[in-house]
Amino acid sequence: MLAGCNDPRPAASQPAAAAPEVGFVTVASQPVRQVRELPGRVVPLRIAEVRSRVAGLLVERNFEQGSRVNAGDLLYKIDPAPFQVELASAEATLARAEATLVLAGQQAQRLRELLSRQTASQAQYDAAFAAQKQAEAEVAGAKAARDRARLELNYTDVRAPISGHIGRALLTEGALVASASGTPLATIQQLDPVYVDITQSVGELNRLRRDLANGELSRLENGAANVQLILDGGQLYPHAGRLLFSDVTADPSTGQVTLRVQIPNPNGELFPGMYVRAHTTQGIDADAIALPPQAIQRTDDGKAEVWVIGADDRVTRQPVEVGPVVDGTWLIQAGLRPGERVVVDGFQKITVGMQVRPTHQAPRAVEASVSRIQGAATLGTTLVR
């Protein structure tokens, strides 16, 4: 008997659907450097206001505005004539005091000899001896006055207190200059190296300290944080800096503390007041987990999850907590363990509980040294070689 051509075959005889093929990566831990991007401002290493230590008429300016000067260079000249007169007067007073001392000494010596022969009274000798001592004191006072007059004459040469770049002249020739408490004549700033003052929240700084204390992060090899700067235009500054210290007082209005970085500035690219972004390496996470971006899926409410392949090759959804990005690779803060298999390809073919045919895919290599930070991209960590 022939069966009809449209008779259905028994369900048991139909072939089972083949398990879909999906690509996966195996979760593995690796050490990464914890890097924070923090805002900062450039500050001169040293800054000094040029002031006159004597009052007088400004007669010369001996520098080019905006140029580099060295400590001790002559910057301004104040009219020395009044101070030369004062010095001459002080020297004359000293000469008079020294002559008086010579006479008083001779008188005391004569009376000492007469007293020994009992031809002068003790009172006469005592008076002569006191006059000698008074003359000695007057000589000492006259010498001090002479030295002061000489010092003030030297102060008419206004010299650079430090080496650095001098700004614009704040007073011109012909101006009457006040003493040290008056208007500054110019400002000198030392700009190689420079400081960069960066700010970090107290909460983040405390978390970093806790992680270092409990071993979740390990300290850097040399104990000091390495710092790279990103300039306002987005380019990487070619010289690395080092973290010197953090302030002990938080700003009450912002809840932030200041961290000071010292960084070379041989070509003068960094100017005082300039805004920069600092990538600060603050510790090493020895057991970080990184996944390629395609492994991270999002739920309807925006939470991160991954598809995990179990031991029986069945897939399940697993929520994860994602951290910062390392060179385009997501760090996983929680939700995965080393050795688990995570789907990275073939999501459209699978549903929860489905059995799959796993195909291993090597994840994109993510290697970045501390000194290589990608342009203006915001980094949270860097993998350790």
TrEMBL record:
GO process annotations (BP): response to antibiotic
Signal sequence interval, chain numbering: none
This protein's UniProt keywords: Coiled coil
UniProt subcellular location: Cell envelope
Multidrug resistance protein MdtA-like alpha-helical hairpin domain residues: 86-156
GO molecular function: transmembrane transporter activity
Superkingdom in the source lineage: Bacteria
Multidrug resistance protein MdtA-like barrel-sandwich hybrid domain location: 46-189
Gene Ontology cellular-component annotations: plasma membrane
Protein name in the entry: Efflux RND transporter periplasmic adaptor subunit
Domain Multidrug resistance protein MdtA-like beta-barrel intervals: 193-280
Domain Multidrug resistance protein MdtA-like C-terminal permuted SH3: 287-349
Family of the protein in this entry: Belongs to the membrane fusion protein (MFP) (TC 8.A.1) family.
One Pfam short name: Beta-barrel_RND
Residues forming coiled coils: 87-152
High-level lineage: Bacteria, Pseudomonadati, Pseudomonadota, Alphaproteobacteria, Hyphomicrobiales
